[in-house]
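Dear colleagues,

As part of the handover before I leave the project, I'm documenting each prediction I ran so the next person doesn't have to rerun anything. This entry is a single chain, and its sequence is reproduced below.
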Amino acid sequence: MIRISEKTLKDLEFDTVLDHVAALCTTDYGRSKALQIVPFGTATQLNIELQQVFEYKSSYLHDARIPNHGFDSINNEIKLLTVENTFLETSNLKKLVSISLTNNDLLTFFKSNKESYPFLYQTSTEIPFTKDIINLIEAVVDKFGEIKDNASSTLLGLRKEINIIQGKLNGSFGKDLTRYNSLGYLDEIKESVVDNRRVLAVKSMYRRKVKGAIMGNSKTGSIVYIEPEATLQYSRELSNLQYEEREEIVKILKQLTNSLRPFAALLQQYQEYLSDIDVVSAKSKYANQLNAVLPKITEDRELTIKEAYHPLLYLSNAAKGEKTYPQTITLDQSNRIIVISGPNAGGKSITLKTIGLLQIMLQSGMLIPVHEYSRVCLFNTILTDIGDNQSIENHLSTYSYRLKNMNYFLRKCNDRTLFLIDEFGTGSDPELGGALAEAFLEVFYERESFGIITTHYANLKMLANELPYMANANMLFDARTLEPLFKLYLGEAGSSFTFEVAQKNGIPYSLVNKAKKKVERGKIRFDKSIANLQKERSKLQKTTSSLKTKEQKATEEKERLEKTNDRIQRKLESYQELYDSNQRMIYLGQKINDLSEKYFNTKKKHELINEFIKIVEVENSKRKKQPAKQRKAEKIKEQKIAKEVEQKVKVIREKKKEEKKKEEKIIQQKPKVPLKVGDRVRMIDGKSVGTIDTLEKGKAIVNYGVFTTNVAVDQLEFVETPAKSYSKRRK
């Protein structure tokens, strides 16, 4: 039986996680259930819940999405069904229809998709599927929430009479309205409604001339509202009929409610089922926010959590745009207890809380933000001693309270226990408190409990180094800046960097040195050795990381070059094949051309045919006999190569055309220089330069030295002359 104390849940801030999950529920009933989530009592119940959450989360990737599970609470309706001589109104009945339809939709969906959602389907089979509730209500109430006319013969008759009287009343009122309006007795608004009755808006000066009952007047007193005498009788008859209608409706609703009373327990079951689905849905949404997964749950005593994130810290940092550092930790039979040491603000307590909170979440049926290859076992008891536990109400100091807590640990610890203790042994004399903490730790070790503690005590670090199934660990720090790296390193104890941190924060060296002399030299050497080891390891890790990065870049570059080389090789091969094929075609074409020329001169058909056959036979002798499929494949390949070449030629041509257009555009945009006799010019797109001899009517005779030509002036462009000629021309 799994039991987790309220204190543990509070220490690990599990209530904050529940607030987040509850906020993702869509129903009030689901929200109240989410806030009451506790770890499951049995592994079987837990496995079903975890699989359901995993299936619901997976549904976001499926085409077959789970239908809506929202509903309005029907607690009041269920209470009324359990009390005799009560009845449900149509608004209550609509809620019963809605929850029944929602429930039936889910049951039908899971039945038709049981391969995709086996655990959700299995749970749904415990809920009866029935349309009786819907049929009973819909036989009486229409989709607008009104009682149907045919709900009873009496109601049908009453409504027919009501319609007749209503018609007469409207007709009578219409006549009076027309008559009094024509006489000018009515105000501009003509009519109004008072106490759900139509009345005439009569000008106050004419109120005595209109027969009927005065129902009121306007605020200014200028209008008097009168119900005409002729309609008074119809109104009384209508009121009586409406009263009888209501009596008949109550009778019908009582009969219907009595028919629904046997379904009270089923309706409660519907509500419980849909609220459970709502909680499962909220857990899956929370898992999506955390990128959470379902790790492997093992029956072996093993807790291997890879790349684990503290859920609350992860969401908080994500909202701020800050990075969250994951942790990896392993507890198993060969390494049952881990002692984490090192300076404060390095992440020891967060690591401790991360492991505890994730374990609680998993045992409460939630997916957790870890690597999918993580392995987790279940604990019957999780014990925590985290934070300042000074008990003001019981007048206990921090140390007294912690001792009382340790006594509770001694009673509960066994081989199915996970204990988490922050700053183990603090609150008393360091040597005496450390000795007592060591004794407690030895008891936990002997009982084969799993646990993680954080401490600054050297004797606990030494104990972890001596015992075979206990290990030291530390939070890594940058050796140069002493800034935390928020990464757990197993296998070595951590230095507190007491004197180094003091110096970094401006404490005079003389004072630090004086403090060192007050401490045993053995302790200083021990702490300094640990600090040096950590610094060396930090340097080594940086070098390793740098080498790995360079190796990765080199591998990527090598792969890129190999791909480029393969691509070029394939292109060369295809071009060679195309070249060989084209050369062969040219050779054959030349031979055919020679035969054609010979036949043209000799006109000897027989000789032409023989020569042609020889050429064909020579070519066929070169061909290997290939299956039809291979020949077809080669032909397709040749066509493909030819198509590629044609496409590239086409692209080159298009580029040339575009370049030509650009050149023409540039030429057009150039400012036109007025041409004169003696100017050196050339044709647009031409290279030869000549001199203008004469200019007349848009035509120019250009002398190129060897010859002259008559050209339209707009086809010529001015060529810049040498400086001397240019300056002379400008003068």
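Confidence is low (pLDDT under 50) at residues 390-395, 722-731. The first strand starts at residue 186 and ends at 194.

All the best with the project,
I.
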